[in-house]
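R.M. (postdoc): so does anyone remember the format we settled on? I'll just put the structure tokens first.
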């Protein structure tokens, strides 16, 4: 499941609704927001939440809000009152500091709850069960990290998620956006430090590989083309790869698939040798840097016509013609071109 973030410290208007609906059409199904940002006025926050709730209802999106015990107090909400909690109209709460496990267990009987994935312990899970928590409605959501150098280590993150899965707990992580970045630092909002400044889709696909059940965009927006890339992947299972310069026209006119036997060094398009859509006389050979799009020429004998993408830097080969190059952002997607993965080329 993929989601995105909408924050309440700035006015929500028609442009916000347009963005929300565009993300829903792309296949995103959830929205995350925060109810405990210190600089926000509590009254304004409640009004903004009401607008966002309406927008999410119009777009058929789940809405989960991050809140602390102090945040509830500032909004004048008694979190022990089930009617008051339900009146928020949320799909779930992501609980921050200040709650006892007994209180969390009680809230889980009202609506789905997400806890801090990084800090939850064996003791917490035992106490939640003992207090009658609805464990089917308790998930573990990681934080995002605005300050550079403070994001989580990928190995530690993977081990934590595996531990949570072993206990039947679903997990969530954030990836950065590439549109409007969150103030005040504007350095992206990833969960993993290595994802700071990364292609959002590539970061999302890596989180999925690291036992992450839900992936949300942490920042305020993603670019239109990035949304198109997510839509192609979510709805059709395709990866859209952008090229720096124009490739031969036939490469843009169809969907290509990586062979089922995945090569270490290159993506090998299964259809290319049978289709023979490109000229194969020797021409424009040279060093193949990562992301180079190539075709084997006549000097490669039976391999002539095979289209490939270099996954890493490779030496020049007189039997291989250079056709063009992927953008650096699209090169980040190459590790996720697995067996049979569908790929389409896009002009930059």
């Amino acid at each position: 499941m993929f989601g995105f973030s909408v924050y309440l410290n700035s006015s929500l208007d028609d442009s916000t609704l347009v963005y929300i609906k565009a993300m829903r059409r792309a296949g995103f199904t959830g929205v995350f927001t925060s109810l405990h940002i210190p600089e926000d006025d509590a009254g304004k926050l409640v009004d903004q939440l009401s607008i966002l709730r309406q927008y999410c209802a119009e777009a058929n999106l789940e809405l989960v809000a991050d809140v602390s015990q102090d945040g509830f107090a500032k909004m004048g909400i008694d979190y022990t009152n089930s009617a008051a909690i339900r009146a928020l109209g949320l799909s779930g709460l992501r609980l921050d500091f200040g709650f006892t496990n007994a209180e969390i267990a009680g809230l889980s009987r009202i609506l789905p709850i997400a806890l801090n994935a990084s800090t939850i312990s064996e003791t917490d899970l035992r106490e939640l069960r003992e207090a009658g928590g609805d464990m089917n409605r308790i998930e573990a959501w990681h934080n995002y990290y605005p300050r550079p150098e403070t994001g989580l280590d990928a190995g530690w993150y993977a081990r934590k998620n595996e531990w949570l899965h072993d206990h039947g707990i679903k997990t969530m992580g954030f990836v950065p956006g590439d549109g409007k970045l969150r103030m005040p630092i504007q350095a992206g909002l990833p969960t993993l430090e290595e994802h700071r400044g990364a292609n959002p889709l590539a970061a999302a696909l890596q989180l999925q590989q690291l036992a992450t059940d839900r992936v949300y965009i942490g920042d305020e927006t993603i670019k239109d083309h990035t949304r198109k890339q997510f839509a192609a992947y979510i709805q059709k299972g395709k990866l859209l790869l952008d090229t720096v310069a124009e490739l031969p026209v036939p490469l843009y006119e169809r969907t290509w698939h990586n062979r089922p036997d995945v090569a270490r060094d290159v993506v090998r398009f299964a259809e290319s040798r049978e289709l023979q859509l490109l000229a194969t006389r020797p021409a424009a050979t040279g060093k193949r840097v990562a992301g180079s799009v190539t075709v084997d020429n006549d000097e490669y004998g039976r391999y002539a016509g095979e289209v490939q993408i270099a996954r890493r830097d490779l030496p020049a080969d007189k039997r291989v013609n250079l056709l063009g190059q992927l953008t650096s952002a699209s090169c980040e997607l190459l590790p996720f071109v697995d067996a049979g993965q569908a790929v389409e080329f896009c002009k930059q």
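R.M.: ...and that's the designed sequence above, right after the tokens. Also worth knowing: The chain has two domains: 2-236, 242-347. The longest helix spans residues 42-59.
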